[in-house]
Amino acid sequence: MRYSLALAGGGFYGGGFNRGPQGSAQFTLTPPGWGRFSIDVELGWRLARFREDIPGTGVAVSALHSIPLTAVGRMNLLRMAHLGLDVRVGVGPLLALHHLSNDFSASSVRSALGWEVLAGVQLRFPLGAFEPFIDARVGFGEAYIPFVTGRSTGVQGLLGVRYQLP
After folding, report:
1. Nearest to 118 by CA among 35, 34, 21, 14
2. SS3 150
3. Are the CB atoms for 51 and 64 separated by under 8 Å?
4. Whole-model pTM?
């Protein structure tokens, strides 16, 4: 059994003002005999923030935090000495927290539980126990909060490093 941990950071774009930073922590498990197949459990975070000056009223700030927990299947397509290419497909729950604050009323926090699916590729650069990688993916999902059209899914890009546990 092989185990590894990874941390990554990057950004996403879901259309319009739905863009911002993102991060993830991944735990990878490769059971014996699975060859090129592995399972990732990924905990992510994304933030879409919007600030608008409303003339004569004040400033309104909307922040949508999205926290997906995804089970991901990984298949290694290319394995060379210093280069690897994996295809990843996953699904899992998505927690959304929306914070709205403004100068003219009380702030509010609302939440929703939804779902997300993702598909992408991960280009890896094995360097012994450490493995830098570039992750490009497309996500689709929804956590419905009334009157909020924030989307934290869409095109996503991450840079990270994985550590193979002994």
Report:
1. 14
2. coil
3. no
4. 0.89
How far apart (Å, rounded) are the C-alpha atoms in residues 42 and 31? 17
Residue 149 CA to residue 24 CA, distance in Å, equals 23
Backbone CA torsion sign across 42, 49, 136, 163: negative
pLDDT in tens, 48-71: 998 888 887 788 898 999 999 999
How many CB atoms lie under 10 A from the CB of residue 13?
15
Question: For residue 38, with 0-12 CB atoms within 10 Å meaning exposed, 13-18 middle and 19 or more buried, which class applies?
Answer: buried
| Long-range interactions of 139-142: CB distance < 8 A, separation 24+ | 139/12, 139/68, 140/116, 141/68, 141/94, 141/114, 141/115, 141/116, 141/117, 142/94, 142/114, 142/115
Return the biggest CA–CA distance within the chain.
67
Name all domains of the chain by residue range, CATH numbers in brackets.
Answer: 2-164 (2.40.160.20)
Per-residue pLDDT reduced to its tens digit, 91-128: 999 999 999 898 778 888 999 999 999 999 999 999 98
Secondary structure in 3-state letters for 11-25: EEECCCCCEEEEEEE
